[in-house]
Design a protein that fits this description.
Layout (H helix, E strand, L loop, with lengths): L11 H36 L18 E4 L5 E4 L3 H28 L3 H4 L4 H8 L3 H11 L2 H20 L5 H6 L8 H14 L1
Antiparallel strand pairs: 1-2
Helix pairs in contact: 2-6, 2-8, 5-8
């Protein structure tokens, strides 16, 4: 009797069946992962889109404000008081442009690195020499009662607009960051950011 070990190889048909099954499982996994990722991306991105029609309750308004958009989507905001218009303007700005507003205030204050990382440290150091955040706080403190009321209404509108989004603007998802609420001095900082642009 021969004591040699024998290796039994599967026949060709068995090999091809296993290969087809393995490829089918791999392809199914890729398709499921792609579809799931697509649904997640769609949900996250669509949740960060602004509300362009319908109605919404905006706390702090003394009466209804109307936001009308032209064929290009550019809004016109009408209300009975400047404070109401300022609040609604802040809401619309946050819904449509919060990330750009955020980077403008951070650029002027020298705080971009908190959001974008090390690559903006040099720019932040240069910006902080101007002490724009402290100067903006002084501007707000020295403003008249009416001016502060408008700034606060705008600020409250911005924060309400940001909170009304189902998900933060998509840029924050990419950066894995959380938006920081708007403050009255931030509106002054946006004006100061033009110093760097001009």
């Amino acid at each position: 009797m021969n004591n040699a070990s024998h290796v039994i190889l599967p026949g060709p048909s068995r090999f091809w069946r296993r290969l087809r099954l393995t490829l089918w499982i791999a392809a199914s996994t890729v398709v499921i992962a792609t579809v799931a990722t697509g649904f997640w991306i769609h949900h996250e991105l669509s949740g960060s889109l602004p509300q362009l029609d319908g109605t919404r309750v905006l706390p702090g308004l003394s009466s209804a404000v109307r936001v009308q958009r032209d064929a290009l989507g550019i809004p016109t905001i009408r209300g009975n008081t400047r404070t109401d218009v300022a609040r609604a303007t802040g809401f619309v700005h946050a819904q449509e442009r919060f990330f750009q507003m955020d980077t403008s205030r951070r650029q002027a204050a020298g705080e971009l690195s908190e959001l974008l990382g090390r690559q903006t440290v040099a720019a932040d150091k240069a910006a902080r020499l101007h002490r724009f955040r402290a100067r903006a706080a002084l501007v707000v403190a020295s403003a008249s009662t009416e001016q502060r009321a408008l700034l606060m209404a705008y600020t409250d509108g911005v924060n309400a607009g940001l909170q009304a989004l189902a998900t933060p603007p998509f840029e924050y998802l990419l950066l894995r960051a959380t938006p920081v609420p708007w403050r009255p001095e931030d509106s002054i900082l946006v004006l100061a950011s033009m110093f760097f642009s001009l």
